[in-house]
């Protein structure tokens, strides 16, 4: 999969009166405390009996903490706000940026929105050329539909489920390249739960390593270890074998290591079975010698 091509040089390159009052208050408090101590009667058993019981210990999470957690859990951006930002993107009112994509198409956007959403895009826009009040930047190497979805997400965090299925890998690349962690998390969750198959696991594995997604990478390796025979016959494996033989060797070694661990677990299981049988035999012999029992029942 080609990485996004960006046409930007960014890639190359307190007063005395108050103190007196405070001291006076302290002296008054101290004198009051002394009088209370002098006037306080000595303790007795009757006094101790009248002491109320202490309150029970609080739970691990107090009610206030639970309420705060509940409020945070229910807080979300109202749909009306999302719709407003989505409409701003689609109607392109006052757009001052044109994003050129493959097939010479472009996506209009707003410079302030892009700069706030992505620090990478902000740097690119600062260094881009302005022509007739419009800035032009390029995002190449991915389908124009994926670029459209990506820019729309920067406005409203909205996306369509069917489109996500088609362009999740491209959106993963864009979210990593332009530092959009929220979109990256969505792509990773989607890949882990719905999209990962034997046919694309090798492509997803290479993408996960390129985009610094260790959990997704681990899940892909685990799938390969479980079904190497089927996955090794896919087109993705064949391409990976030619382009990245070191990864192929690593995966084969992972499978061998997993098999050796499995054999070791099986050996220990068999040893435990033998030890259990020997233990039961010794218990039977002790029973015969101690009790003189000639028949051993269950």
Automatic annotation (TrEMBL):
<dbReference type="GO" id="GO:0042542">
    <property type="term" value="P:response to hydrogen peroxide"/>
</dbReference>
<feature type="domain" description="BTB">
    <location>
        <begin position="95"/>
        <end position="163"/>
    </location>
</feature>
<keyword id="KW-0479">Metal-binding</keyword>
<dbReference type="InterPro" id="IPR011333">
    <property type="entry name" value="SKP1/BTB/POZ_sf"/>
</dbReference>
<dbReference type="GO" id="GO:0009725">
    <property type="term" value="P:response to hormone"/>
</dbReference>
<dbReference type="GO" id="GO:0005516">
    <property type="term" value="F:calmodulin binding"/>
</dbReference>
<dbReference type="InterPro" id="IPR000210">
    <property type="entry name" value="BTB/POZ_dom"/>
</dbReference>
<dbReference type="InterPro" id="IPR044513">
    <property type="entry name" value="BT1/2/3/4/5"/>
</dbReference>
<keyword id="KW-0833">Ubl conjugation pathway</keyword>
<dbReference type="GO" id="GO:0006355">
    <property type="term" value="P:regulation of DNA-templated transcription"/>
</dbReference>
<dbReference type="GO" id="GO:0009751">
    <property type="term" value="P:response to salicylic acid"/>
</dbReference>
<comment type="pathway">
    <text>Protein modification; protein ubiquitination.</text>
</comment>
<dbReference type="GO" id="GO:0046872">
    <property type="term" value="F:metal ion binding"/>
</dbReference>
<protein>
    <submittedName>
        <fullName>BTB/POZ AND TAZ DOMAIN-CONTAINING PROTEIN 3-RELATED</fullName>
    </submittedName>
</protein>
<dbReference type="Pfam" id="PF00651">
    <property type="entry name" value="BTB"/>
</dbReference>
């Amino acid at each position: 999969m080609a990485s996004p091509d960006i046409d930007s040089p960014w890639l190359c390159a307190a007063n005395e009166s108050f103190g007196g009052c405070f001291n006076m208050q302290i002296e008054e408090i101290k004198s009051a405390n002394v009088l209370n101590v002098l006037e306080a009667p000595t303790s007795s058993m009757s006094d101790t009996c009248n002491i109320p019981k202490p309150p029970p210990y609080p739970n691990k999470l107090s009610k206030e903490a639970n309420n705060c957690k509940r409020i945070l859990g229910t807080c979300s951006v109202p749909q009306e706000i999302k719709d407003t930002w989505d409409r701003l993107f689609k109607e392109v009112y006052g757009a001052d940026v044109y994003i050129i994509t493959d097939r010479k198409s472009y996506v209009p956007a707003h410079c302030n929105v892009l700069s706030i959403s992505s620090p990478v895009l902000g740097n690119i826009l600062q260094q881009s050329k302005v022509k007739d009040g419009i800035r032009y930047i390029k995002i190449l190497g991915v389908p124009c539909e994926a670029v459209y979805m990506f820019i729309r997400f920067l406005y409203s965090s909205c996306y369509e489920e069917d489109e996500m299925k088609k362009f999740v890998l491209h959106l993963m690349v864009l979210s990593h390249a332009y530092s959009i962690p929220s979109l990256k998390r969505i792509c990773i969750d989607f890949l882990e739960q719905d999209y990962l198959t034997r046919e694309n696991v090798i492509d997803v594995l290479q993408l996960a390593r390129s985009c610094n997604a260790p959990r997704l990478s681990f899940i892909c390796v685990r799938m390969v270890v479980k079904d190497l025979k089927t996955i090794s016959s896919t087109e993705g494996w064949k391409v990976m074998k030619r382009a990245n033989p070191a990864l192929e060797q690593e995966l084969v070694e992972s499978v061998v290591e997993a098999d050796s661990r499995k054999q070791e677990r099986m050996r220990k299981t068999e040893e435990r079975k033998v030890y259990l049988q020997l233990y039961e035999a010794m218990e039977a012999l002790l029973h015969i010698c101690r009790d003189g029992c000639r028949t051993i029942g269950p």
